[in-house]
Amino acid sequence: MGRDDPPMVSRKIALIFPGQGSQYVGMAKSLYDTDADCRALLERVDPALGTALLKLMFEGPESELTLTANTQPAILAASVAALQHLRKSFDLTPTACAGHSLGEFSALVAAGAMEFADALQCVRERGRYMQDAVPPGRGAMAAVLGLDRAALDEVCRSVSSGNGVVSPANYNGSGQIVIAGEAAAVKKAGEEARGRGAKRVIPLSVSAPFHCSLMQPAADRMQELLARFTFRKPAIPVYSNVTARPHPAPDDASFAQEARRRLTQQIVSPVLWEDTIKHMSETGVEIFLEVGPGQVLTGLVRRIAPQAACIAMESAGWNEKLRQALSTAYTSHAA
After folding, report:
1. Nearest one of 239, 273, 238, 293 to 79, comparing CA atoms
2. Taking the model in full, what pTM does it have?
3. Is 101 a catalytic residue?
4. Which of 73, 188, 317, 329 is the most buried (most CB within 10 A)?
5. Cα–Cα distance between 56 and 66 in angstroms, integer?
6. Please, what is the average pLDDT of the chain?
7. Phi and psi at residue 125, in whole multiples of 5°?
8. Percent of the chain whose predicted confidence (pLDDT) is above 90
């Protein structure tokens, strides 16, 4: 189905955009090679940033691509290229969009609330600020599996009272919660979580402890940066990681003020991903389409909203799966 075809039956679809960790060497290369419009869009990346990011995305080395200041604009660029390809392939009017952490900026671009070049510059600086906020080795993150939110919240509060900063960073759903903070406190919280019944605690290979109070220096700098860029009222609702609800958007000025505030707060606050997906489902979203590199979010959403169709654009046959989901009473999920 192309853009000139008649729209399919009305079914509520949400676009979801990945965050840091979904990057890989070679991402967006096939779109660059096969889709002229995606190539034109991606060729705007290097001039906007004044760097050779495309070469890094396509050829690596991986060690440089995983540096936060490179990873964040690279994932945003790959995600917006995928969005460009989606719009050429399907005549869709999404109900809403959301992004995991960094992915919230991709969602803002998708909704017309930010210019692509502005978002690229924002997330590059965001990556730098987050990397610089905590000296190497001081912070850590870990994924805790199989312990409910209330119990892990209590563990973090208890450990933080005498062992340094540790707090939930990502509520990813289905018993997966990421914690972040000072390295010793994260280790202690992991030990206590296992004692409370957590199935596994997995240390994460990250360059800084994201989404915790140690990121306050980055949030302060981000607040100043965001004031330099223009935000417009989005064409469709964009969910905030901080509230798990759409950014309020009565007009351009009000939206800009609130978006800047929440995007600043996001840096030191947990990502409420499980809550976001549940709220979207409660408002009638039946299809979740992951737009961008990887399939991490699709896996999470399938566990949070098993009744929905969950499709990643990087999965085999994604367009046929989406066509089926849009045109049938789809009640099970697709890979």
Report:
1. 293
2. 0.94
3. yes
4. 73
5. 10
6. 94
7. -70, -35
8. 90
Structure tokens, 321: 């799966």
* Phi, psi at 197, each rounded to 5°: 115, 5
Q: What is the structure's pLDDT at 5?
A: 45
In the numeric block, the tokens 């004692």 are attached to 195
Nearest to 289 by CA among 246, 247, 326: 326
Catalytic annotation, pick one of 101, 240, 269, 281: 101
In the numeric block, the tokens 């495309």 are attached to: 54
Residue 15's beta-bridge partner residues?
97, 289
Residue written as token pair 């417009």: 232
Pick from 218, 45, 24, 1: nearest CA to 126: 218
Paired residues of 202 in beta bridges: 143
Q: Could you report the per-residue pLDDT of 150-202, keeping only the tens digit for each?
A: 999 999 999 999 889 999 999 999 889 999 999 999 999 999 999 999 999 99
Decide if 277 contacts 288 (C-beta within 8 A): yes
205 is catalytic: no
DSSP code at position 24? -
Over range 321-332, report the average pLDDT.
74
Q: Indicate the pLDDT class of residue 10, thresholds 50, 70 and 90.
A: low
- Catalytic hit among 85, 211, 279, 333: 211
CA proximity to 57, closest of 44, 40, 68, 71: 71
Cis peptide before 136 (omega within 30 of 0): no
Q: What is the mean pLDDT of residues 39-47?
A: 98
Separation of CA 132 from chain center: 21
Q: Is residue 6 over pLDDT 60? A: no
Spacing of C-alpha 103 from chain mean position: 3
